[in-house]
Amino acid sequence: MPICIIETNLSSDALPVGIKEKLSDVIAETLPNKSVERITVIVHSGIDVCKAKRTDPFVQLTIHSIGVFSEENNPKYSKALFAFLDAEFKLPLDRIQIIYDDIPPSSVGKRE
Known about the structure:
alpha/beta; globular
């Protein structure tokens, strides 16, 4: 069920080739009990972004998921995810950020 959203001011043609599929694989490998078949990746490119009063290239990854994020586990996830994002986007360290959003099961609609 993880929903992963990449937001960036890079244009769509400047995105790494296959970024959605590659991120799906990394999320499935990194988060426990999250199969690639249940992962959604959304990319918003070419958006207006200003971080630290700068508008140079920037990437933010937000991951919404149920029951996996914690103070104890997030550093492990960050290590793997930053390694992936750094390799793919090749941006300075301060131009990539990750937000973890642990959502309750009741916040997700399900078909009965």
